[in-house]
């Protein structure tokens, strides 16, 4: 290897030398929708990671619900801290399997950019309101393609876009790094949501299904470590990334338990209110599309008002959604002859 190589070229050289033959090498990327000059210091996947971190939609994740809406405690998970959890677990999986850690990190950081306010409750509401439905993974790709940077998008690589689109358990990622993120997403939300449910008094550790706990572990760090170690033991040196049947079964049992005993219960408190807010705002902006921010109006000609209204509503944080709803539908106080009424 010549010493005149750029930093990016040295990284690509080392990837070819040290990564698994089944890893997606940076030099083998299918590229971007719009060609760009390579950076001397960063691979394309590293540039994607940086673009996502500095995007407006990434910054807004800190004020979007994961499970518990507007919790009073400081340690509850938000959509942002969930994303960071997924990134950490995905990187650990990728590193252990000699996959491309930069690609896994970029996919993980971008996987929920299109998520709605009020968590999955908001997603279900928009899915019912929109004639073509609404899925947050598809919206995440739309965010990075069409909405960010005043409509120019982030122009991410095909591999990162594919991983974002296919991160749900029903998806089929084209790279092993994308599969790692999909598994990391499941591992992350099950375990940190258990912690939040215990913190909120909804669950006790002893309530968790015994078979799943015996297989995965009694504490969050044990369960995460068990999952990562199992993926490594099953997948190292193989053209796939997967869990063993035993660990996958226990994970699915824990997930089903959480849906039955936590997610539905936690969502009841905000289901009606968030549905009312999003439904009324959806109807209002469908009738008054000119009231949308200018940045969204430019999308109307290509995408139609229903899609653009969904773009606007799904991009809101919880607090901003409440603020817009109040400004539209709750009369403010006004003064008559110096008397506030």
How is the secondary structure organized here?
Blueprint lengths: L6 H12 L25 H10 L2 H5 L18 H18 L4 H10 L8 H11 L6 H12 L10 H8 L10 H24 L10 H7 L3 H16 L9 H43 L6 H4 L2 H4 L1 H11 L2 H12 L5 E2 L2 E2 L1
Helix pairs in contact: 2-5, 4-5, 4-9, 4-11, 5-8, 5-9, 6-12, 7-8, 8-9, 9-11, 9-12, 10-12, 12-15, 12-16
Polypeptide structure, described:
The chain is mainly alpha-helical. The protein has a single domain, classed as Hypothetical protein af1432 (Orthogonal Bundle). Helices cover 61% and strands 1% of the residues. The chain has 16 helices and 2 strands. A hairpin with a 2-residue loop joins β1 and β2. α4 packs across α9 and α5 crosses α9. The longest helix has 43 residues. 44% of the residues are buried. The C terminus is likely disordered.
Radius of gyration over C-alpha positions, nearest whole angstrom: 22 Å
Q: Strand-and-helix sequence, N→C?
A: HHHHHHHHHHHHHHHHEE
- The CATH superfamily title: Hypothetical protein af1432
- Tell me the strand percentage band: under 5%
Tally the helices: what do you get? 16
- Supply the CATH architecture: Orthogonal Bundle
Considering DSSP H and I runs of 4 or more, what fraction of the residues is helical?
A: 55-70%
Overall SS class: mainly alpha
Strand order of the largest sheet: 1-2
CATH class: Mainly Alpha
Query: What is the strand tally?
Result: 2
């Amino acid at each position: 290897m010549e010493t005149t190589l750029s930093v990016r070229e040295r990284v690509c050289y080392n990837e070819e030398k040290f990564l698994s033959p089944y890893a997606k090498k940076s030099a083998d990327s299918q590229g971007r929708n719009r060609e760009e000059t390579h950076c001397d210091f960063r691979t394309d996947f590293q540039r994607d990671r940086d673009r996502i971190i500095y995007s407006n939609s990434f910054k807004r994740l800190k004020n979007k619900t994961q499970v518990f809406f507007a919790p009073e405690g400081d340690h509850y998970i938000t959509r942002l801290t969930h994303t960071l959890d997924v990134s950490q677990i995905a990187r650990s999986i990728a590193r252990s399997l000699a996959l491309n850690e930069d690609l896994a990190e970029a996919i993980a950081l971008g996987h929920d950019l299109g998520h709605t306010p009020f968590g999955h409750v908001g997603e279900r509401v928009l899915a019912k309101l929109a004639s073509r439905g609404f899925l947050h993974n598809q919206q995440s790709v739309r965010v990075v393609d069409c909405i960010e940077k005043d409509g120019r998008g982030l122009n991410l690589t095909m591999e990162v876009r594919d991983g974002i689109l296919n991160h749900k358990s029903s998806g089929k990622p084209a790279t092993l790094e994308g599969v790692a993120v999909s598994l990391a997403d499941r591992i992350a939300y099950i375990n940190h949501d258990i912690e939040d449910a215990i913190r909120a008094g909804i669950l006790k550790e002893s309530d968790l299904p015994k078979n799943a706990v015996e297989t995965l572990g009694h504490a969050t760090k044990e369960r995460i470590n068990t999952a990562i170690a199992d993926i490594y033991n099953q997948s190292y040196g193989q053209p796939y990334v997967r869990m063993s049947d035993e660990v996958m079964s226990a994970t699915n049992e824990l997930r089903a338990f959480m849906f039955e005993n936590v997610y539905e219960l936690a969502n009841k408190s905000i289901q009606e209110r968030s549905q009312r807010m999003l439904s009324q705002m959806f109807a209002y902006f469908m009738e008054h599309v000119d009231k949308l921010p200018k940045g969204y109006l430019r999308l109307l000609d290509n995408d139609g008002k229903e899609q653009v209204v969904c773009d606007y509503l799904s991009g809101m944080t919880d607090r901003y959604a409440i603020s817009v709803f109040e400004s539209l539908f709750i009369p403010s106080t006004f003064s008559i002859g110096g008397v506030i009424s």
